[in-house]
Design a protein that fits this description.
- There is one protein chain.
- By secondary structure, this protein is an alpha+beta fold.
- Helix content is 47%, strand content 16%.
- It has a single domain, classed as CBS-domain (Roll).
- The chain is elongated.
- The two termini are 31 Å apart.
- 25% of the residues are buried.
Length: 147
């Protein structure tokens, strides 16, 4: 199974922000609808370049140090600048390894430099559970057919 398979199911819609948006604006976008866990920062407005990612976790960590002043900071002040991404042709096994290694819950999907989707750990787990259910059914059918 590939990242592209997840995007075919969930779609390629990605919520983005600009680095000069306030954290208050970003928090409103995260709260939804739809409620999401991260925004990809693309300052070019065309999704040709990923400049960062800002997640609920980024905001909570800054809340601990900045308190209410956090809401007046910009997304650029709190975003993660070194963004781990994946590609549509990446396997779910590779993506799970990356997410686990870097402790990221969201990975922007980039194809030839262009943002084309976003996957979450929830998307990956959901797909893996569906695969396991199918595998279990096939093994059960093989077992029953042989007895």
């Amino acid at each position: 199974m590939k990242v592209a398979d997840i995007l075919r199911i969930k779609g390629d819609t990605v919520q983005t922000a600009l680095s000069w948006n306030t954290v208050a604006e970003a928090a409103t976008r995260l709260a939804g609808p739809p409620a999401i866990g991260a925004l990809v920062v693309c300052d070019d407005g065309k999704r040709e370049h990923v400049d960062g990612i800002v997640s609920e976790r980024d905001m909570v960590r800054r809340l601990a140090t900045d308190g209410a002043d956090l809401l007046n900071l910009t997304v650029g002040d709190v975003m993660t600048r070194h963004v781990i991404t994946c590609a549509p042709e990446d396997s779910l096994t590779d993506v799970m390894t990356q997410m686990n290694r870097w402790r990221h819950r969201h990975l922007p999907v980039v194809d030839h430099g262009r943002l084309c989707g976003m996957i979450s750990i929830g998307d990956v787990v959901k797909q893996r559970l569906a695969e396991m259910s199918t595998e279990t059914g096939v093994l059960r059918d093989i077992y029953l057919a042989s007895h």
